[in-house]
């Protein structure tokens, strides 16, 4: 291990308590999207800016994506630069984390502490957003803080990006930044997205599946359940459609790719909504949402075309004219779509560097692979910029009693620093 890396690792250990306190402070702020009826990330972004205001970053920029639903009408995105040994001409390493979190869910399942009342216990920090993505956000901060404390300029400029809206599609986060400020990004950049991984930090994600979420809305005619012939039960139509669509997609798009875990495409019916509020009502409307994670070899347009063709078949099967209107109607609305870009080359510089850092710091050999989840990495890959997803995680994201392991946070900070130094 190099002398500088040893010094930085030792300094990060000294910052352990400060790292814990910073994560505790950030967890207290419920930075949840307006999509879920909350105010967004503004308060958390301000707290983060307050934490780093006296740190000797070379440049801190705030890019506010307009969103009238959010507090003060904006979704903040923060970029903090710590220049490398060649100043602005240094090669750049981006470390991207997100400041938004998902809603807490069923509060009765939070048995250790309340979601936004962080608790430090048994080497863990409990609270919503602790692991996703607070652990890595704080790790990236203190990787740089250690360099600053020691007066070390790394080989590569570190760009810390703290962005909004990752949990609901990145329309106001990295997607907005790339669309509105393309000048920020360079082809030669290296990118780490510490928002996925495994328990021992040996998995490097270089590929993602395509993602499409779509909502199927079936309209029939509400009627009293004792007289079904006078209406058209939207539940029955929707259940028929969802069953056959689920079967069709699994059978037609069934190939496997060992790069990914799971190795096949997934098609999951998730959210369901129907307006009937009584057992004796046959409802006139039913909605079901599908979450599809598709191997890159398949086209999302083909899947959508299959879904639409099946809708026509089902409509014909239940076709009925009521009050001059032909029913049922079946609408398909795309909620989110991300077509998978080409994978990051397993021999690219960022992958090689990360493997080397893990060997030096942990004496472990990492493996590369693909995942079904969507991350910021896909946005960079679309620009031809190599990006990897890596962190040491217990995979507590989106769960009740979510926690971050303090050792993981501290040790990952050392790896992040190494990526800038090696």
From TrEMBL:
<dbReference type="InterPro" id="IPR011650">
    <property type="entry name" value="Peptidase_M20_dimer"/>
</dbReference>
<dbReference type="GO" id="GO:0016787">
    <property type="term" value="F:hydrolase activity"/>
</dbReference>
<dbReference type="InterPro" id="IPR050072">
    <property type="entry name" value="Peptidase_M20A"/>
</dbReference>
<feature type="domain" description="Peptidase M20 dimerisation">
    <location>
        <begin position="206"/>
        <end position="318"/>
    </location>
</feature>
<dbReference type="GO" id="GO:0008483">
    <property type="term" value="F:transaminase activity"/>
</dbReference>
<keyword id="KW-0032">Aminotransferase</keyword>
<keyword id="KW-0808">Transferase</keyword>
<dbReference type="InterPro" id="IPR036264">
    <property type="entry name" value="Bact_exopeptidase_dim_dom"/>
</dbReference>
<dbReference type="InterPro" id="IPR002933">
    <property type="entry name" value="Peptidase_M20"/>
</dbReference>
<keyword id="KW-0862">Zinc</keyword>
<protein>
    <submittedName>
        <fullName>Diaminopimelate aminotransferase</fullName>
    </submittedName>
</protein>
<dbReference type="Pfam" id="PF07687">
    <property type="entry name" value="M20_dimer"/>
</dbReference>
<dbReference type="InterPro" id="IPR010182">
    <property type="entry name" value="ArgE/DapE"/>
</dbReference>
<dbReference type="Pfam" id="PF01546">
    <property type="entry name" value="Peptidase_M20"/>
</dbReference>
<keyword id="KW-0170">Cobalt</keyword>
<keyword id="KW-0479">Metal-binding</keyword>
<dbReference type="GO" id="GO:0046872">
    <property type="term" value="F:metal ion binding"/>
</dbReference>
<keyword id="KW-0378">Hydrolase</keyword>
<comment type="similarity">
    <text>Belongs to the peptidase M20A family.</text>
</comment>
């Amino acid at each position: 291990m190099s002398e500088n890396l040893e010094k930085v690792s030792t300094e990060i250990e000294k910052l352990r308590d400060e790292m814990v306190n910073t994560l505790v402070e950030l967890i207290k702020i419920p930075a949840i999207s307006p999509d879920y009826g909350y105010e967004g990330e503004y308060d958390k972004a301000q707290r983060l800016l307050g934490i780093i205001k006296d740190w000797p970053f070379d440049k801190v920029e705030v890019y506010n994506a307009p969103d009238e639903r959010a507090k003060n009408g904006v979704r903040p995105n923060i970029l903090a630069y710590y220049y490398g040994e060649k100043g602005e001409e240094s090669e750049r390493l981006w470390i991207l984390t997100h400041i938004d979190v998902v809603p807490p869910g069923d509060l009765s399942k939070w048995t250790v502490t309340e979601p936004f009342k962080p608790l430090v216990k048994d080497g863990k920090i409990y609270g919503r957003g602790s692991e996703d993505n607070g652990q890595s956000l704080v790790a990236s901060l203190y990787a740089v803080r250690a360099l600053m404390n020691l007066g070390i300029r790394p080989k590569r400029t570190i760009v810390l990006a703290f962005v909004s809206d990752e949990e609901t599609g990145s329309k106001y986060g990295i997607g907005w930044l790339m669309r509105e400020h393309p000048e920020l990004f360079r082809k030669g950049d290296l990118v780490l997205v510490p928002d996925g991984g495994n328990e021992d930090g040996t998995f490097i994600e270089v590929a993602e599946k395509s993602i499409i979420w779509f909502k199927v809305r079936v309209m029939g005619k509400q009627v009293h359940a004792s007289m079904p012939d006078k209406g058209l039960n939207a539940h029955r139509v929707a259940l028929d459609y969802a069953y056959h669509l689920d079967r069709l997609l699994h059978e037609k798009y069934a190939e496997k790719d060992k790069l990914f875990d799971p190795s096949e495409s997934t098609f999951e019916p998730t959210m369901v909504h129907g307006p009937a509020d009584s057992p004796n009502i046959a409802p006139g409307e039913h909605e079901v949402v599908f979450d599809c994670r598709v191997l890159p070899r398949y086209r999302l347009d083909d899947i959508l075309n299959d879904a639409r063709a099946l809708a026509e078949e089902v409509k014909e099967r239940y076709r009925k004219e009521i009050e001059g209107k032909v029913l049922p109607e079946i609408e398909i609305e795309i909620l989110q779509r991300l077509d998978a870009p080409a994978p990051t080359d397993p021999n690219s510089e960022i992958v090689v560097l990360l493997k080397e850092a893990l060997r030096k710091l942990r004496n472990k050999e990492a493996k590369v692979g693909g995942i079904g989840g969507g991350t910021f990495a896909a946005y960079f890959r679309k620009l031809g910029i190599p990006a990897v997803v890596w962190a040491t995680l217990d995979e507590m994201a989106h769960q009740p009693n979510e926690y971050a392991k303090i050792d993981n946070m501290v040790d990952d900070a050392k790896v992040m620093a190494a990526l800038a130094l090696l």
